[in-house]
Amino acid sequence: MSRPPIVRRVNGRTLVDRSSLARLTGRSVHTIRGACPVADRDRTGRPLYDAQQCAQILATTTRRSGSRRHLTASATSA
What is the pTM of this model? Predict the structure, then answer.
């Protein structure tokens, strides 16, 4: 059972839950949890994030795909 999305407008800011923000930005919930500060919480304790602030933060963080282990010094020296 999935939880319903939370979107709130508070003092001109748009606050959204983590899974909705992940869908909107195309980033993972793990990336959002690690990079974005929690702006507020709903009545059940779910973290809410400022959509504009997170968009700025996520625009500066790079996406990594796959493991970087193949780029170690031993693999590149020949």
Answer: 0.74
